[in-house]
Amino acid sequence: MFGPPTPRGTTGEETAFNDYPLSEVPAKARRGVLPLIMILIGFVFFTPTMLSGARLGAAFRPSELLAVLVVGSLILGTYVAVLGVIGARTGLTTVLLARYTLGRAGAKWADILLGGTQVCWYAVTAAFLADLLASAFGWQEHTWLIIVVAASFTGVTAYFGYRGLEALSAVSVPLMLLLMGWVAAQAWREIDTAGGLDAVEPTSSLAWATAVTIVVGTFVSGGTQTPNWTRFARKPSHALMATFGAFFFANLMMLVFGAVGAIAYQEPDFVAVLLQLNLTVAAVVLLVFNIWTTQDNSAYSFGVAGAEMFGVNDKRPFIVGGVIVAVILALSGIYEALPQYLVLLGVFIPPLGGVIIGDYLFVWRGRLPRLDKTRFVRFRWDCLSAYALGTLVAWLSDRLSVGLPPVQGILTAFLAVPLFTWGLRRLGVRSMHTVRPEKDDEPGRPDDDVHGQPGDEAATMASAAGASEGRP
Predict the structure, then answer these.
(1) Which CATH class is domain 15-338?
(2) How far apart are CA 200 and CA 270, in angstroms?
(3) Three-state SS for 405?
(4) Among residues 154, 121, 291, which one has the least CA distance to residue 222?
(5) Furthest-apart CA pair in the chain: how many Å?
(6) Model-level pTM greater than 0.90?
(7) What is the pLDDT of residues 77-118, one digit of tens each?
(8) Contacts from 466-469 at CB under 8 Å and sequence distance 24+?
């Protein structure tokens, strides 16, 4: 009756191995800050991000470019850091947080949106990796085989859970930093030889708001899923450091690298720069690790989304299934048409993060009741309405080229939560979950009478439930 459906025969050890896809991460399974930083940096070290940096680098003088990159990265880092802290405090994945925010049935939209988007990106990236490897070694006739092998190989670490992601990142992140740092130094030397940054003139034009939107858009969709990893943080402060460090500093670094590479070599992709310098082995190593650390996080995300979608306490079948679907998409050639639709989906994802943050802060007052103490309603109409409004604002902003669509979608959804919650409450519409009291046998307080209402007993009961269970 209460909490998530858990299959019979599931043991604690199995749940730990599967990374607790349908429950809170317990204190004994929490990890230190360094592994989390490595995992998130590996996630944002993504070659296409450098392409965005190159596009911006061609439109602004260096001083203006730096301002654009810093402002955009600051917005992105702040948004993701807030979600990361919520994940650490609750121990829940993004899709489980969505269950509190959107309801038991409403959360299925989050599963489809987040999981489906990551499967599609997995297909696009697998094909991208295969094309580059085929070009580097002249294997064009075997591109299909490279897609199958690459897609299967890069999903292995996600299959083994958080520890698999941790092991890969511990090796790949320092190596990628070393290689990219070396290429950046070579590129800077080229720029200095050509007259320095003062000699750089824009070759295209781009509105400031559009440029900031591009920066925020590099990882705003992926960043919405950071609770999937920060739920393993021992302290909320660890999640704050890791998320802001990755999505502000590391993502900013990738954008700068792309701009510098484009200015020096007319090539934003450092892998292509290494190939130009006849460093094929180094290029392949950088390419594989660069893609792998992003792909395994994507696979992990659609794995936990599938687990919530079908109520199965095991993410592994959905990782395998998602990889198979991604391979089919990549082999069919459909992946070539996916990016434009995935960009559109990017309009729908940021408001989800905004409504989760708004619900957590305004309705639950920073204290979620435990899953096993909560009977979830099918739909949270207040938060669903706030999400719909945020999505509409983001879509209109994008279509009309007004402001920063992702930011406006997030803020609209965030601020609309208390307004819709108050409005539905005034209309007498129940839109809250039932929270089991501290003592089930307390006289006069049967389960069905414990109906939390926003702003009063719901927050009190949720706080009591969280405090009684040692919730941070």
Answers:
(1) mainly alpha
(2) 20
(3) helix
(4) 121
(5) 82
(6) no
(7) 999 999 999 999 999 999 999 999 999 999 999 999 999 989
(8) 466/367, 466/368, 466/369, 466/370, 467/367, 468/438, 469/370, 469/373
